[in-house]
Amino acid sequence: MARKKSNRFQELYIERYAAEGKSIAHLESGKTIFVVGAVPGDTAKVFIQKNKKFFASGKAVEIIKESEDRITPFCEHFGTCGGCKWQMLSYKQQLIYKEQQVKDQMERIGDVEVQEFLPILACEEDRYYRNKVEFTFCTDAYLTSDEIKKADGAIIEKSPALGFHAPGLFDKVVDIKHCYLQEEPTNKIKNFLRDYCLEKNYRFYDFRVQEGWLRNIIIRVSTLGEVLVNLVVHKEKKELFTLLDDLLSAFPEITSLNYTINPKKNDSIADLKVQHYKGKAYISEQLGNYTFKISPKSFFQTNSKQAKILYDEVKAFADLKGNEVVYDLYCGTGSIGLYLSDKAKHIVGIELVEEAIADAKENADKNQVEHCNFFVGDVSKLIDDDFFQENGHPDVIITDPPRAGMTAQLIKELKRIAAEKIVYVSCNPATQARDLQDLSTDYDIIKMRPVDMFPQTHHIENIALLKRKMSC
Question: Considering the entire predicted model, what is its pTM?
Answer without folding.
Answer: 0.90
